[in-house]
Amino acid sequence: MHVLEALDSRFSCRAFRPDPVPEETVRAILGAAARAPSGGNLQPWHVHALSGAPLARLVAAVRAKMADLPRGEPGEYAVYPPELKEPYAARRFKAGEDLYATIGVTRDDKAARGRQFRRNFELFGAPVGLFVYLDRTMGPPQWADCGMFLQSVMLAARAHGLHTCAQEAWAQWHSLVGAHLAPPAEHMLFCAIALGHMDETALINTLRTERAPVDAFTRFAGF
Ligand SMILES: Cc1cc2nc3c(=O)[nH]c(=O)nc-3n(C[C@H](O)[C@H](O)[C@H](O)COP(=O)(O)O)c2cc1C
Question: What is the mean pLDDT of the chain?
């Protein structure tokens, strides 16, 4: 697959078929993604790849806890700045509205929105969950490195005919996830990536989010 096709066809898939993904495919995707650059070649990412029974146990554990702690655990990092300014706040709002519109959920229907949000913790039905950690001592440059690794995983998945969804939502269950994965204490959960075969029939997968045009975020000179 051409890299431009991989870039263009990647989107956040939020409904998967249950068909399994073999370990060798996941290994191939992670191996390809590990070619991502990182400052000083630190390669600061650490991944726990889960499928089958261990993944089912984690999903069940979160489901059991959700009744007591509907908002999850206090996060270890802020997903967004406390005061999200424009144009970022409007973009976030629109992405949410457009997402819920695909499944006919209105702004006031908090229950349906909550149900859809909680699908995060079933990895939207994906048979594989990649839980991505980085060392607590790492700073913004290494978090950026991790982002390059995430995108590389998502593009490599496309080359194998698979789809993905990056999921920061899992960070709100970091200690429960940690109890299942037993990462070293110095590792911190950044996010998960749901990985699998797209459910082609799911309306939620029809969303294609907007992007600002190149001229809105680039100033050209000297061409
Ligand atoms: C690091 C990261 C974390 C994300 N976390 C979530 C999440 O927890 N749940 C979710 O449904 N989407 C999540 N997303 C998906 C974004 O909402 C999505 O990338 C954005 O709206 C653009 O849409 P697209 O990926 O379909 O192009 C995440 C994306 C990234 C890069």
Answer: 97
CATH superfamily of 3-211: NADH Oxidase (3.40.109.10)
pLDDT tens digits, 17-41:
999 999 999 999 999 999 999 999 9
By CB neighbour count within 10 A (0-12 exposed, 13-18 middle, 19+ buried), where does 205 fall? Answer: buried
CA of 172 to the centre of ligand 1 (A): 15
- Burial of 25 by CB count in 10 Å (0-12 exposed, 13-18 middle, 19+ buried)? middle
Residues in a beta bridge with 17:
197
Q: How far apart are CA 81 and CA 61, in angstroms?
A: 29
Ligand 1 pocket test: pick from 8, 11, 12 the residue with the most ligand atoms within 8 Å of its Cβ: 12
Which helix or strand (DSSP H or E) is residue 88 part of? helix 88-102
Task: Name the pTM for this structure.
Answer: 0.97
As a whole number of angstroms, the distance between CA 26 and CA 106 comes to 37
